[in-house]
Each structure stands twice: as C-alpha cells, then as structure tokens.
UniProtKB/TrEMBL annotation, chains A, B:
It comes from the Bacteria. It holds the Pfam family TetR_C_29. This is TetR/AcrR family transcriptional regulator. The keyword Transferase does not apply. One of its GO terms (molecular function) is DNA binding. Keywords: DNA-binding. Residues 7-67 form the HTH tetR-type domain. Signal peptide: none annotated. InterPro entries: DNA-bd_HTH_TetR-type_CS (IPR023772), Homeodomain-like_sf (IPR009057), HTH-type_TetR-like_transc_reg (IPR050109), HTH_TetR (IPR001647), NicS_C (IPR041474), Tet_transcr_reg_TetR-rel_C_sf (IPR036271). Residues 30-49 bind DNA. It comes from Flavobacterium cupreum.
DNA sequence: GTTTAATTTAAACGCTTGTTTAATTTATTT
DNA sequence: AAATAAATTAAACAAGCGTTTAAATTAAAC
C-alpha cells in the first residue's frame, strides 16, 4: 500500500489528529495521544506521515480542498444579492462548524509559526473567497440595495470572527445560554448564531442613516 | 520579600511570559525559554509562581485587572446609549490591541474546560462585562432607540471576533490593504476597523426592516 | 508453497519538559 | 557582628516527548 495516498487508516489518524489538535492544540497533543485514540501503534504516525509536522501538513491539505468550489457555485446561482450573502454566511458557518478543528489550527496555530509554504495555498483560497464576496456585494450596490460605504474586506472578519469568538469561548457560552448538550450547542450555532450574523451583515449592508 | 505581591522581577517574568506565550503558545513555550529570556534561573518561576499553570493565571490577572473598572466607569457616564456602545467598542478594541499577546492566549489557550475551571476569576470578569453591555443595550431599548430582537450575548463575539479575525490574519490584510508599516497597521485598526465595528453594531442595534 | 514486500509491533533512543532539592549567596533583623 | 530570612543557583529528578530500530506479523507476488 502506498504511503502517499490516503487509505482508511491514514484518514482515521487524520480525523483523530484534528480532534485532538483542536482540543489541546498542536504542541499540547502528543503522538501517543493520537495513536492511543486512533488505536494504532505509536510508530504508525511516523511510518505513514514521516513526522508530527508532516502529519499537520497532510491534515491541512486533507481538509481545505473544496470550499472554494462551493462558494464559486453560489456566485452563479440565480439569487438576489441579499439572499446570496445570507447563503454565503450559511456556507461559511456550516463549513467552519463542521471543520472546527482545522480552522482553529489554521487561524491560531499556523499564524504563530512561520509556515509560509502552507500559508501560500491558504492565502490564495482566502483571496478567491474575498473576490467572490466582493462580486456579490458590488452587485447589490449597483442595484441600489446595499449601501456603498462598506469596507468589503472587513465583512469576512465580522462573519468568521463572530463565530470564532463564540466557539473559542464555548464553555462560557455553554453555561450562559444553558447549552448543556452538544446537540443544543450545535443547534444554537446553526440557528441563533447564524441568524445573528446574517442579521448583523444585513443591517450593515442595507442600513441607511 | 513576599511571594504574593508583584515585585519588579515577577513583573519582568510576566512580561517575558506574555511575549513568548503569544508567539509560541502556552504549550510551545518552556519555562527554560522564559527563564533564559528573562535572565533568571529556571527555578525562579516555580519559586515565585508555584507552577507554569499558576504563572499563566498570574499573567491573566495582571493584564486584565482594570478593564472591568474602565467599563463600569463608562456605564455611569452621562451619554446616549449609542454613544456608550461606540465608546465601549473603542475601549474594547484599544484595550485588546494594546494587549494583543494576552488576548491571543486567552482565546487560544482557554478553550479547554479543564483550564477554564482553573481561571474562574476570568469568567467572572467576562460575566460582569456582559452585564454592563446588557445594561447599556436595555437602556437604549427602553428609550425606543434600539430594536428588541437582538441577542445581547452575541454582540461581544461580533465586536471582539471581528478584531481578532482581522489581527489573526495580519499578514493577509497587511498585503491586501497595503499596511506596510506597523504604524499604518495600528492606524487602520484605530480608525477604519474600529469604525467598521461601530458601524456594524449600530446598524444591528437600530436597523428596522 | 516459497519468496518478497508491506504493515504492525514493542522496545529503546536521546532529548526536553516541569518541578524539586539542597547548597550558596545576598539581604534583613536582632 | 551574629543570626535569621530571603533570594538565587546548579544539579538532579521523574515523566513525557518525537522518533527510530529491528523483529514479528500479515499480505502480495511469483
């Protein structure tokens, strides 16, 4: 069996690694933790991926492949600008929420280190997504629906940032909002939090003084 | 000399710890790193703070002690609700921007429940700040200025999250917005980013369908 | 069925970690 | 000046780390 392709066992390791990295951080997670939870021998990580660092690389590539496509598809749908924005928010939140771990790593773990070869691919992804958002917003502006003094590159930080801050303070909000179970927590994100972000961005885009 | 109070040497250790924690994370920073950079003996950290975990605790308390006071002062100022919200945002952003390191730690390291329990004091701080925000918003609602279907606990995530996402993607926005120098970057935060957040929250609070 | 390759394993490697010890230096008090 | 307390140090500690080894097991090829 090849060591480059992703077989079931490698994927299993990646899934466990994502879970643990997102819970305890990259440095805070040991290969022994991973191998124990994935029920494989410690040496298998090195055997499959070469090193812990290369495991992280493989994990990033594994998880960040098809978001761009999803957004570009939305771009060409026949929808009103506001509906497109709302759907974009939904895609973003759902996407990040389903891949919490990897986005946590991307935003916090990777920025602290000097991993520019990995960041380059990710930067291109971000630029493309911003371009898509710009297209949607300018469409709404030219239709006279959206106001024109909005700084478009700062919209994404508000969307993503709101989610991240919420999720990063998970224990705090779990207690505050009585989200005792994982289901309750996920439902709150899917409904209330997503709605809050949509409401916020809508207000920002269409509100007139 | 007492071990509880903060003398110059303890403060020196805390400053170094903040710098290294923010650069390399909590797990990624060793006590040897800290002691080397602070030019003290390895044992001094344990001697002064007891453990690495308690050093983090001391660091958090050291850096987040007077924010609560600052916000409670604002609460009793004679200002319109919207002006209070705007000033609150200004306080938050300025505050976080001046203490980037520590807030990075807070977001990055405090996600695990286990650690959150150790830092109950900080949770209380957050609750108090939320209470203050609630007071301001409800004041605006009772005056008929703010809409009433806003989820107040989600306002802070939008304020803080927007800043954090921006700052976490510093290299990306530096290139995108041509913020070539540190001064340009800081000015952008102080002016454009802060204004964007204020504009967003204002729209969220006063926008009517 | 034998040979060859791929997978899996337990054990050990060298190194770093956070913390503790006990001795020494420095400062304070009597 | 002597006695006591505080600060600082080098060294050692056990535990955990990522990684490597070499042997054992399983699968594939001939």
């Amino acid at each position: 069996m090849s060591k480059v392709e992703l077989n079931d066992k490698k994927i299993q390791i990646l899934e466990v690694a994502e879970k643990l990295f997102s819970e305890k951080g990259f440095e805070g997670t040991s290969i022994r933790d991973i191998s124990k939870m994935a029920k494989i021998n410690i040496a298998m990580v090195s055997y499959y991926f070469g090193s812990k660092e290369r495991l992280l690389e493989a994990l990033l590539l594994y998880k960040t492949s098809d978001l761009k496509l999803q957004i570009e598809l939305l771009l060409h749908e026949n929808l009103e600008p506001l509906d497109k924005v709302n759907k974009l928010i939904e895609i973003y939140i759902n996407r990040i929420n389903c891949n919490r771990g990897i986005y946590r790593i991307l935003h916090f773990e990777l920025t602290s280190k000097k991993r520019e070869e990995n960041l380059a691919a990710f930067t291109e992804l971000k630029k493309g997504n911003l371009k898509s958002l710009e297209t949607i917003v300018k469409e709404g502006q030219s239709k006279g629906i959206f106001r024109k003094d909005v700084i478009i590159p700062l919209i994404t930080p508000t969307i993503m940032g709101t989610f991240f801050h919420f999720h990063m303070n998970k224990p705090f909000f779990e207690e505050l909002l009585n989200l005792n179970t994982e289901t309750l927590y996920n439902d709150y994100i899917k409904n209330s939090l997503t709605k809050h972000i949509q409401q916020t961005i809508k207000a920002l885009l269409v509100y007139e003084n």
